[in-house]
Amino acid sequence: MIDLSRREAFMTAAAATALAASGLSAATPALAQAAAAGQAPGFYRYKVGDMTVTAINDGFARRPLEGFVRNAELSAVQAAMSAAFLPADALPIAFTTLVVQNGAQITLLDTGNGDSGAPTSGVWMRNFRAAGFTPEQVTRVVFSHFHGDHINGLRLKDGTLTFPNAELNVPAPEWAVWMDDARMGAAPEAMRGAFANVRRVFAPVAANVKQYQPGAEVAPGITSVAAFGHTPGHCVFMISSGTGKLMFMADTTNHPALFVKNPDWSAVFDMDADAARATRRRLLDMAAAEKTQVHFYHAPFPATGFIAKAGNGFDYVPVQWSSAV
């Protein structure tokens, strides 16, 4: 007979309550194991007006800090990391997509790493299913840009298409660059793999991909916004319902502790550093002035909060976690 301590009994009851609230059974083996390990599945729901959005976490990757910020001394970057109680040698970069439910429509904004992730990522599908979704339910997938951690979840390494019933929407300026043979041929050697990966993911379904122009409504209540610089056609999205607004910021910043605090810093991933800095300031200024809630793809989970002006930079203020949707 197992004799539970009061603390263990409390934790078991709390885990069962959380699972029941999510509409999932504690008898599900994977979820029961996760609860026993002390961590809940990586999803988080909240409302934007009448819409329900669900953040789906895809784990994280560690990036060496040296050379990560192109235009700042390592000591300055380490000081910013220290101020945020982050390690001085490597940056933990989280990955979090959004699912937007608007009536019967289920729109996915970016797809995570798929089965191409590092050892500490690639957990998106587990968390997606734990949130109560199945790939067949997704009606639309909208991409912000074509870096692998945003598109690889669309197609597994064996070629399987993950969302068989979904309409696929991509930024037209992004498609024009990454799918252009001449640009691929002229790309630096370090970029050839990225071009090849875009072809791997999209070429088999190219005839069915719908291209949107920045500024277009990509789904009811979701409008694309040009955010060029990180990549040539990088877009973010304004999600609006009633008085509720949420800006999906994609990769406008990488970790907020670095690039919200210091918006003029340039991440190694920014393909056009000057344009990326201008975009970052414009969108952070907008979010701060309008008090718009934001979602960052690479912020600590659940990756949502608000922006406040702070001197020459900004502060990121995470939302208070809530058990109620």
Question: How would you describe this structure in keywords?
Answer:
alpha/beta; 26% strand; Metallo-beta-lactamase, Chain A; disordered N terminus; seven-stranded mixed sheet; globular
Short description:
This protein is an alpha/beta fold and 325 residues long. The protein has helices at residues 6-21, 29-36, 74-83, 124-130, 148-151, 172-178, 181-186, 189-202, 256-259, 273-290; strands spanning 43-48, 51-64, 90-102, 105-109, 140-142, 167-171, 210-212, 217-219, 222-226, 235-241, 244-248, 293-295, 304-310, 313-318.
What does this structure look like?
The protein has 2 domains: 1-40, no CATH class; 42-318, Metallo-beta-lactamase, Chain A, CATH 3.60.15. Helix content is 29%, strand content 26%. The chain has 10 helices and 14 strands. It has a 7-stranded mixed beta sheet. A 7-stranded mixed beta sheet has the order 8-9-10-11-12-13-14. 43% of the residues are buried. A hairpin with an 8-residue loop joins strand 9 (222-226) and strand 10 (235-241).
Secondary-structure-based class equals: alpha/beta
Low-confidence spans? 1-28, 30-38
Q: In the CATH hierarchy, what is the superfamily of the largest domain? A: Ribonuclease Z/Hydroxyacylglutathione hydrolase-like
In what range is the share of β-strand residues? 25-35%
Distance between the termini: 38 Å
Question: What's the CATH topology label of the largest domain?
Answer: Metallo-beta-lactamase, Chain A
Total domain units: 2
Strand line-up across the major sheet:
1-2-3-4-5-6-7
Q: Tell me the helix content.
A: 25-40%
Largest sheet: 7 strands, mixed
Assigned CATH architecture of the largest domain: 4-Layer Sandwich
Name the helix and strand elements from N-terminus to C-terminus, one letter apiece: HHEEHEEHEHEHHHEEEEEHHEEE
The number of helical elements comes to 10
Indicate the overall shape: globular
Q: What is the residue-averaged pLDDT?
A: 90
Query: So what's the CATH class of the largest domain?
Result: Alpha Beta
**How many individual β-strands?**
14
Q: What is the alpha-carbon Rg in Å? A: 20 Å
